[in-house]
Amino acid sequence: MSMKANVLRDANGNIIVHMQGDLNYDHSLPLRNELQSIANNNPNAKITIDLGAIDFVGSSGICHFVETVKFLKENRKANVSLSNVKPEFLKIFRLYSINEADYVAELMNFDNDETDGLNTRFGNRNHTFEN
Protein backbone atom coordinates (compact mmCIF):
# COMPACT_ATOMS: atom_id res chain seq x y z
CA MET A 1 0.00 0.00 0.00
CA SER A 2 1.07 3.56 -0.46
CA MET A 3 1.23 6.45 1.96
CA LYS A 4 -0.73 9.65 1.59
CA ALA A 5 -0.25 12.86 3.55
CA ASN A 6 -2.84 15.64 3.48
CA VAL A 7 -1.49 18.98 4.67
CA LEU A 8 -4.05 21.34 6.20
CA ARG A 9 -3.64 24.81 7.65
CA ASP A 10 -6.00 26.28 10.25
CA ALA A 11 -6.99 29.93 10.67
CA ASN A 12 -4.08 30.53 13.07
CA GLY A 13 -1.50 29.29 10.57
CA ASN A 14 -0.95 25.96 12.35
CA ILE A 15 -0.34 22.97 10.12
CA ILE A 16 -1.78 19.47 10.46
CA VAL A 17 -0.29 16.65 8.40
CA HIS A 18 -2.84 13.80 8.23
CA MET A 19 -0.97 10.63 7.27
CA GLN A 20 -2.59 7.43 6.05
CA GLY A 21 -1.37 4.15 4.64
CA ASP A 22 2.04 2.59 5.17
CA LEU A 23 5.11 4.24 6.66
CA ASN A 24 8.03 2.25 5.30
CA TYR A 25 11.44 3.00 3.83
CA ASP A 26 10.12 3.92 0.38
CA HIS A 27 7.72 6.49 1.84
CA SER A 28 9.83 7.82 4.69
CA LEU A 29 12.38 9.74 2.62
CA PRO A 30 9.82 11.73 0.56
CA LEU A 31 7.95 12.39 3.81
CA ARG A 32 11.16 13.65 5.41
CA ASN A 33 11.73 16.06 2.53
CA GLU A 34 8.15 17.32 2.67
CA LEU A 35 8.17 17.83 6.46
CA GLN A 36 11.48 19.69 6.26
CA SER A 37 10.08 21.89 3.50
CA ILE A 38 6.94 22.63 5.54
CA ALA A 39 9.04 23.52 8.60
CA ASN A 40 11.41 25.71 6.56
CA ASN A 41 8.58 27.58 4.85
CA ASN A 42 6.57 28.00 8.07
CA PRO A 43 9.08 28.57 10.87
CA ASN A 44 6.52 29.91 13.37
CA ALA A 45 3.76 27.38 12.73
CA LYS A 46 2.85 24.57 15.07
CA ILE A 47 3.10 21.36 13.02
CA THR A 48 1.00 18.40 14.15
CA ILE A 49 1.59 15.03 12.51
CA ASP A 50 -1.58 12.91 12.77
CA LEU A 51 -0.68 9.22 12.65
CA GLY A 52 -4.21 7.90 13.24
CA ALA A 53 -4.65 6.44 9.76
CA ILE A 54 -1.24 4.76 9.50
CA ASP A 55 -1.84 1.04 8.88
CA PHE A 56 1.72 -0.32 8.75
CA VAL A 57 5.05 0.87 10.07
CA GLY A 58 8.28 -0.73 8.84
CA SER A 59 11.43 -0.68 10.94
CA SER A 60 13.39 1.45 8.48
CA GLY A 61 10.41 3.78 8.18
CA ILE A 62 10.51 4.28 11.95
CA CYS A 63 14.18 5.12 11.85
CA HIS A 64 13.79 7.85 9.24
CA PHE A 65 10.58 9.20 10.74
CA VAL A 66 12.05 9.60 14.24
CA GLU A 67 15.28 11.09 12.85
CA THR A 68 13.19 13.63 10.91
CA VAL A 69 11.08 14.64 13.92
CA LYS A 70 14.18 14.91 16.11
CA PHE A 71 15.98 16.99 13.48
CA LEU A 72 13.03 19.35 13.10
CA LYS A 73 12.62 19.82 16.85
CA GLU A 74 16.28 20.04 17.83
CA ASN A 75 18.04 21.62 14.84
CA ARG A 76 15.29 23.67 13.22
CA LYS A 77 13.58 24.43 16.55
CA ALA A 78 10.28 23.56 14.90
CA ASN A 79 7.17 23.19 17.03
CA VAL A 80 6.31 19.61 16.03
CA SER A 81 3.97 17.24 17.81
CA LEU A 82 2.36 13.88 17.10
CA SER A 83 -1.29 12.98 17.48
CA ASN A 84 -3.40 9.83 17.33
CA VAL A 85 -0.45 7.47 17.79
CA LYS A 86 -1.78 3.92 17.99
CA PRO A 87 -0.47 1.70 20.82
CA GLU A 88 0.88 -0.76 18.22
CA PHE A 89 2.98 2.02 16.74
CA LEU A 90 4.67 2.72 20.06
CA LYS A 91 5.24 -1.03 20.57
CA ILE A 92 7.09 -1.17 17.24
CA PHE A 93 9.23 1.75 18.41
CA ARG A 94 10.06 -0.21 21.57
CA LEU A 95 11.01 -3.30 19.56
CA TYR A 96 13.25 -1.19 17.36
CA SER A 97 14.97 0.85 20.06
CA ILE A 98 14.11 2.09 23.52
CA ASN A 99 15.52 5.55 22.73
CA GLU A 100 13.09 6.18 19.89
CA ALA A 101 10.19 4.86 21.96
CA ASP A 102 11.08 7.14 24.85
CA TYR A 103 11.35 10.09 22.49
CA VAL A 104 7.90 9.41 21.01
CA ALA A 105 6.44 8.78 24.46
CA GLU A 106 7.86 12.12 25.60
CA LEU A 107 6.26 13.86 22.62
CA MET A 108 2.92 12.23 23.34
CA ASN A 109 3.07 12.37 27.15
CA PHE A 110 2.24 8.67 27.49
CA ASP A 111 1.99 7.54 31.10
CA ASN A 112 2.01 3.75 30.74
CA ASP A 113 1.58 1.80 27.53
CA GLU A 114 2.55 -1.59 29.05
CA THR A 115 5.56 -1.99 26.73
CA ASP A 116 8.36 -1.27 29.22
CA GLY A 117 11.23 -3.66 28.61
CA LEU A 118 9.73 -5.04 25.40
CA ASN A 119 12.86 -4.34 23.36
CA THR A 120 15.10 -6.13 25.88
CA ARG A 121 12.86 -9.20 25.96
CA PHE A 122 13.37 -9.61 22.22
CA GLY A 123 16.85 -8.09 22.01
CA ASN A 124 17.50 -4.45 21.26
CA ARG A 125 17.22 -4.14 17.49
CA ASN A 126 19.77 -1.48 16.58
CA HIS A 127 20.12 -2.87 13.07
CA THR A 128 16.87 -4.04 11.55
CA PHE A 129 15.52 -4.68 8.10
CA GLU A 130 12.20 -4.83 6.37
CA ASN A 131 10.98 -7.57 4.05
Could you explain how this protein is built, in words?
- The chain is an alpha/beta fold and 131 residues long.
- It is 44% helix and 25% strand.
- It is built from five helices and four strands, in the order ββαβαβααα.
- A four-stranded mixed beta sheet has the order 1-2-3-4, with helices on one face.
- Helix 1 links the parallel strand 2 (15-23) and strand 3 (46-57).
- The chain starts with a strand and ends in a 10-residue tail after the last helix.
- Mean pLDDT is 76; it is low at 110-115 and 118-131.
Provide the descriptors you would attach to this structure in a database record:
131 residues; disordered C terminus; 44% helix; 5 helices; alpha/beta
